[in-house]
């Protein structure tokens, strides 16, 4: 694999990792400590998005 492709994979790996951390910090932490309430549908959608990004990280790291 070329060095350029490895750099691209590293970029996307870091991007998805930061995106998951941002979602967890801004949405789930306030929910856990009871700072604000969200409808269950929105929480489920955000959870699905986090899982999607987590699977993307795993897929990219395998390549």
In short:
The model has no long low-confidence stretch (mean pLDDT 81). The chain contains two helices and no strands.
Features:
mainly alpha; 2 helices; 86% helix; elongated
Characterise this structure.
With 63 residues, the chain is mostly helical. The protein has one domain. It contains two helices and no strands. The protein has helices at 3-33, 40-62. Helix 1 (3-33) runs antiparallel to helix 2. It is elongated. The model has no long low-confidence stretch (mean pLDDT 81).
Task: Give the helix/strand layout.
Elements lengths: L2 H31 L6 H23 L1
Helix pairs in contact: 1-2
Strand fraction equals under 5%
**In percent, how helical is the residue content?**
over 70%
Shape: elongated
The CA-CA distance between the termini, in Å, is 10 Å
Task: Please tally the helical runs, counting DSSP H or I stretches of 4 or more residues.
Answer: 2
Mean pLDDT: 81
Radius of gyration: 15 Å
Largest sheet: none
Estimated structural class: mainly alpha
Tell me how many strands there are: 0
- Low-confidence segments, ≥5 residues, pLDDT <50? none
Following the backbone from N to C, one meets helices and strands in this order, namely HH
* Count of the domains: 1
